[in-house]
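so the lab meeting is tmrw and i was supposed to have these ready like two days ago... anyway. pasting both below. for each one the top line is the aa sequence and the line under it is the structure tokens. i havent really looked at them closely yet so no promises
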Amino acid sequence: MPDLQDIQAQHDRYIDSLIANFERELDAIVAGAMARTQARLQDTLSVTDGAIDRTAGNSRALRQLDRIILQEMDRGGFQQALDELVVQFPGQLPFFQQVLDTLSASMDTPLPPIDWGPRDIQVFGAQAAVARDGIEAVMESIAGRVKNRVILSIGGSKFADLVTTLAESVQRGLPEVAGLAETATSTYYRVIADRGYQMIEAETPGKLKYRYYGPFDSLTRPFCQRLLRGGKSYTRAQIDQMSNGQIPNVFISGGGWRCRHQWVISV
């Protein structure tokens, strides 16, 4: 039977592969979307000697830039890439079962089995939908910021400069999309764990305690370092009083954005 460290490593590889594939698809989608956006602007804007004319028509066209970017992103397959990412979230269920099996094997009284019901599946589906909506919202925010930057700096500028600004601004926003995708994937797993541990607590006399588990390296933030160094066990009530300074509900959010840690039953 694998130990917790082995399971963690396998789980990390699963998440890394998911996010890497999503990032590769996103890069290709953005490249195509920027090329099509450029072509649409070239057909729409009035340009003289390479400079964008100061006209009401050009201003109206540029105020639609965020909508154009999002349309071309969708045309390039952004929604499909999101679907492909989110549909793989439930693939983390076996990792949680492996964690339970490993913990149970070291206990005098084995943990009760988990039987996921329709309500649990609904909760998981809702979490996936929240993740999808959140990633869409970030992309919309990036498109909005790009539009505002272009509008504020466009007066008399070269069309070539607009194209450069557009591409660079969108590219700078992509790590934000990837970061949220990784956070959403890990959060989904912790929602699985939260539901599973609630079932176990309902069938286990006394209060269970949990310890923080995961890597301790140069990427580990101070909040997670304190919990890992302390090596203490906490009740759910104690964990619910904690704050990582980023995202509420530490049992589900861990240390915050892109956190790689989880809570496991203390044995």
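ok protien two:
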Amino acid sequence: MRMIFHDPWSLLAITIIALLMDRLLGEAMIYHPLVGFGRWAVRWENWLRHESGSTRIQILLGGLALLIAVGPWVGLTIWLDQQLVVAQVMDMVLLYFALGLRSLQEHGEEVVQALQADDLPLARERVGMIVSRNTADMDAADVSRATVESVLENGNDAVVGTLFWFFLFGGAGAVLYRLVNTLDAMWGYKVGHYLYFGRVAARLDDLLNWLPARITVGLYAIGNWRQCWAHARSQGGQWDSPNAGPVMASGATALGVELGGTAIYGDLTHERPHLGVGPAPGADDISRALSLVQRAVRYILLFMLLVAGVWTLA
């Protein structure tokens, strides 16, 4: 993969333009590449996933499905990156497609609007578009809690993690990260027929997210460093996900709210550790969580600007 960090000014320019494209254009409404990839992955899943095999066979088939689903697209991106004169333009477009900052903002604001209008059925419907849990019996506090959790977690997955792998390996890094992240969302459940088939996708996603998640913890913690990091370690370490837990614990502490608790996935009720400290979040806290993610992006751009300035002086 072609590392593009040798020129921090071009990296900064590409990142800013991609973020502006995301802000102005949002997600591609007609045909988003990640939607097409999801359909492509389902085809391989239907062909390779068999519940009758042994645990080892199911894990191997899940790994093979991931390799076949992701490998060709990452390989194509790497090849094009070496062939095209306008490789940086391609990197910019790929980063735009990989980012989900405006989409995250829009989904969160739609839930806020429904809650402020006291339209609980609509709020449940809208939060159901961004979380995988059962929303049918949620009250307003449950909707707010689920939305804040999703915003904070996706601040890492759809923004910070994407930028991190893009900074390291250009468009190919962003593509690899987002495709694996998508497969984890599709196959990474630790129940039912995905328990073993999705294990490779889940473990690889955990690996790719480990360092970006710690960066996100630090970005959320700015202004309340000591307590956010303490809760990220103590509370986040009790969470099922080694990355989502610390991220949400830091974000919840920065916002002064408490997340976690009871959540229903399908027919199963999960009692999750409590994250953060304070009252249960409300509609206003969803907006504050969105602002926290936006602030993290501004800090990233400021850091890039400082690096570019030092690089120029050196």
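from a quick look at the 2nd one: Residues 47 and 65 are 9 Å apart (CA to CA). The chain has one domain: 8-313. will dig more after coffe
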